[in-house]
Task: structure prediction
Amino acid sequence: MAPEPATGRRPSRNGFSPARFGAVLVKEFVQMRRDRLTLAMMIAVPIMQLLLFGFAINSDPRHLPTLVEINDQGPVSRAFLAALETSGYFDVQGRVAGASAAERALRRGEATFVVVVPDGFERALVRGERPAILLAADAGDPAATGGATAALSGIVARVLETSLTGPLSHLRPPEAAFSVVVQRHYNPAGVTSFNIVPGLLAVILSMTMVMITAIAIVREAERGTMETLIATPVRPAEVMLGKILPYVLVGYVQTAVFLTLALLGFQVPFAGSAVAFLLGLNLFIVVNLSLGFLFSTVARSQMQAMQMSFFYMLPSILLSGFMFPFAGMPGWAQVLGSAVPTTHFIRILRGVMLKGAGLGDILDELGALAAILAVVAGLAMARYRQTLD
Amino acid sequence: MSAPPAPAADADPDGEKPAIEVQGLTKRFGDKTVVDGFDMTVPRGTIYGFLGPNGSGKTTTIRMMCGLLTADGGTGRCLGFDIRSQTREIKERVGYMTQRFSLYEDLSIRENLDFMGRMYRLDRRRERVSQALEDLGLAGRSGQLAGALSGGWKQRLALAACLLNQPMLLLLDEPTAGVDPKARRDFWDEIRRLADNGVTVLVSTHYMDEAVQCDAIAYIAYGRKLIEGPTADVPRRVGLTTWRVEGPGLAMLAQALQGAPGVEQVARFGSALHVSGTDAATLDATAETRSASGPQRWTRQEAGLEEVFIHLMGGARDNFAAASADVDGS
Result:
């Protein structure tokens, strides 16, 4: 082609231009810096969520309000009530009289449990009639009552041991023929935050990465700037990379803030390989950014992009094993859950942080993330248009 | 314009071939045909006016010419490059100014120009940007956000941005919409200056005072071109006869003339009434009778562009077939 001194344009090459990519990158950073609120949200959101979830959520609730209806007072029933309180699960807050009062207390949520010691309990016990104590529970929320009812058999055993002495010792049950020893690995004290915090990192990263990317790209179309942008000789890859890379850095900053707080503030262990963690982190960030990019190719307004991101957030919170055990879901839900990148990153995080996993232990999860990335990025590329049609 | 025997070269950025040459350009969105079989030839160095009502397909046509939309049918060349397959080459050499301000409102004036300079990979970028800021008269405010500028300044900034790569062809989509008269005048002085330097300008507009400044115009309605030609030639080609009526009682007269023989259009222009029709003989007869009987003064005159466009706009639907046949014949 003839030289074009008049235009002062550098000779035209048809490849990827680092200069144009750099220009898009710089522009994104400048725009990000000017959007103070969004920038503050990106840093504040992980801190807020970590504090909220880390301190507020307890999957093994204690001190549940309990009322008692005692129709026969004696040493064994007294010992039983005392044992309920010392277990920490039950807070005996008062007495009720009659079945209807007990029913009302449960219905109104004044009590989670009502303990009914029946008339003639002590005498029946002494006679060896094996009487029953009724524990009425508000099982509407299984998670609230589960831990407490599971603790009951231990409580009963202890009461039997301590109060059936002397002449009553013949009522004690015989020793079991064998026993089960439980070893609680990785989180022996059952600290909820050890389980929640690593998963929370995955959820927060996913939320911000998907939403911010989707919005950042749709914003160009909505404000009309996309028309000017694609009227220049810029290539799609230059736009895509230039727009995505700044948010990768945002993801790093979020992760650093979050981890510092989690390790120092919540004493969450980090037992495994840092390399495995970083590999998983980068792959996860890129998957989420491409997902955001894909959403942006479908959405026509920032509002729609936001709605799509929220639509995606629910499965990534509920089906990923973040809130509820993955193994407890039916097969079809597990299939759906496996398609969500968050599921795999949560496994990587729990593996690396709690279980001391190394690179070799998370290969399956990395592979799954890579497969999701291939599909999502492929779809996004196919849908991204350089024209306005 | 007679082209010299050109070499067989496809690309012709600086040559003598027309700046824009499209045939049968067609664009459909869903089942709606927005642009239908559009032909156009824009010679180098001319200012070409692109007229038509809102939604007539002007923006779509311009977008197809600079590679922002893919045509569903037809072929075309822009600066000698194929508008389908060589969009990158076209984009390198064309300045496109969108209808709506579409630079970044959250970037400063300098940052916007700098960004555009980088997009075109210009050498001596800083110098060029600073020069553009000087020319704009915005050197002192270069740190201000573009979103804070008034409408007139935004338009000047947008023009400066699309001139940064020194384009051979400017595509301006209603560049003066919502801009005050003084700014419009300055803008057109600039356009004229650019055209004198050999830049081809295709500009869409609604304003008649802008249309008359163009060397040639094309009128498009409902996706089809109704007429095209040198500006001074267009009224004659439409074949419109106009009588100018002055005097008292024009409002009453305007009412009375609706549906009178030969009268197709009655339009008020300041203190006068312009009565037009395509059937000259019948219209003249009506005019003679009226002027003999009434107190108003009737003068026959050349039909102006404005009458022509009111005529085209009103008749576009009904006379669609006839009008396009006219154009094909001319």
Remarks:
- The domain at 64-171 of chain A is CATH 3.40.1710.10 (abc type-2 transporter like fold).
- Residues 1-6 of chain A have pLDDT under 50 and may be disordered.
- Chain A has two domains: 21-56+192-383, 64-171.
